[in-house]
Amino acid sequence: MSIAMTETRQDAVLDSFGRKIADLKRSELYRDFFPVGHLAADRGHTRHGDRTIQVWCSNDYLGLSQHPEVISAQIEATLRHGTGTGGSRNIAGTSTAHVALERRLADWHRKERALVFSSGYVANFETLSTLIAAIDDLVVFSDALNHRSLIEGIVRSGAKKHVFAHNDLADLESKLALYPAEHPKLIVFESVYSMDGDTSPAGAIFDLAEKYGALTFLDETHSIGVRGATGAGLCEELDDHRATFVQGVFGKAIGTVGGYVAGPDAALDYVRSYAPGFIFTTSLPQAAMEATLKSLDIVQDGAAQRAELSRKVALMKAELRARNIDFIDADSHLVPVMVPGGERVRRVSQRLREEYDIYVQPINFPSVARGGERFRVTTAPFRTDEQIANFAEAMRRCLDEN
After folding, report:
1. I want to staple 265 with a disulfide (CB 3.0 to 4.6 A). Which of 112, 128, 229, 393 is the partner?
2. Averaged over 268-273, what is the pLDDT?
3. Which cofactors does this protein require (predicted)?
């Protein structure tokens, strides 16, 4: 085969990607990324050209990524230890800060052990896929609205699974009852579901797990830092620590980077020893772990911050309600503002940014069902009452005009 013919075939294969992207744009599902440069000196804002824009969709729920003490901790650790670890966890990549952080996380969640990963997604995928595959005939019961990282971990394991209706205890129990008590089972669910902002009936699910002899894996991603007396999440808030495994992240309310799983010692030692996404990747920098430890200090002593967050979220809901703006009034700090239509939600987002210096990212399929497009609004405790009212007013105007 000639070189020219080979290149022609390669070009044809590569051209197919362009056609697929064109199809994606026609379907109104193409996602534009808005580049931001978060401002540490002006929390909740970003620079865009010569303009300063308010960010109302960040997962940095408490604004700790711009907290001066957290920033100082990372800078000082970088000066001492450098910008990277230079290896995986088993090749010079397990710093003293990794060890201290994992011990502290285990204690925080009242578990025997914790394991830090490069992200929350990796923590879910690697832990679930490794553990499930190691248990013969394990059957998994997964909430219908579980995060993609949970779904992919379950699928990769190859185990048999049942998807139960979202937060539906009767449906979950009917599926658990299909198997004898001695059959190994695992229930996988979240504490707070980010797209609707609703909270799971965790205590009742633990009750079912005990009744039917199931292990549980609870993703506390959106509860860490904002629920519980010391910010340890929904389990701490309920004073119910029966979850077999608890997953959390640092990249949201903690304000740094990474994820983790806490649970039984032997099980997580198995993950440490066999999970490829843990073994064969460079570990997070020690400076990031030092910053996370400092942020945990602030979070664990942050009852006043959490109270202020609740107050500001309640105010946001009141301002939206006063303007007849459709939103899901869930029992969490997340406020989904409903703007059905892929093209419409993009137009509203663009107008808010261009005319009101407000950035909220459109949420569309597959993150939510078609027709359920929305903005997932977050209201940090440092927002002023005036900023919240102005946001709601700008949203009302843009909705009326689009």
Report:
1. 112
2. 98
3. pyridoxal 5'-phosphate
Task: Label residue 10 by pLDDT band (50, 70, 90).
Answer: confident
Q: How confident is the model at residue 3 (pLDDT cuts 50, 70, 90)?
A: low
Please name the amino acid found at residue 362.
P
Fold annotation for 68-300: Aspartate Aminotransferase; domain 2 (3.40.640)
Please give the pLDDT value at position 169: 98
Q: What is the dihedral of CA 383, 384, 388, 394, to 10 degrees?
A: -100
CA distance 198 to 306: 18
- State yes or no: is 252 an active-site residue: yes
Residue 293 burial class via C-beta count within 10 angstroms: exposed 0-12, middle 13-18, buried 19 and up: middle
Q: How high is the pLDDT of residue 16?
A: 87
End-to-end CA distance of the chain: 56
Question: Quick one: average pLDDT of 136-141?
Answer: 97
Given the candidates 3.90.1150.10, 1.10.10.60, 3.40.50.360, 1.10.150.120, the CATH classification of the domain at 30-59+302-400 is 3.90.1150.10
Residue whose C-alpha is closest to residue 42's, from 391, 387, 288: 387
Structure tokens at 67: 């907290």
Q: Which of 149, 308, 290 is nearest to 226 (CA)?
A: 308
Q: Give the least confident one: 44-58, 88-102, 352-366.
A: 44-58
> Where are the CATH 3.90.1150.10 domain residues in the chain?
30-59+302-400
Active-site position among 252, 294, 312, 317:
252
Q: What is the Cα–Cα distance from 338 to 115, expressed in whole angstroms?
A: 37
Residue 123's contacts (CB-CB under 8 Å, 6 or more residues apart) are 115, 117, 149, 247, 249, 259, 260, 261
Apex 102 CA angle, 101 and 108, nearest 5? 85
Cβ-count burial of 316 within 10 angstroms (0-12 exposed, 13-18 middle, 19+ buried)?
buried
Q: Are strands 185-190 and 139-143 parallel, antiparallel or unpaired?
A: parallel
DSSP class of residue 15 equals H
CA–CA gap between residue 39 and residue 382 (Å, rounded): 14
7-16, 199-208, 329-338, range with the lowest pLDDT:
7-16
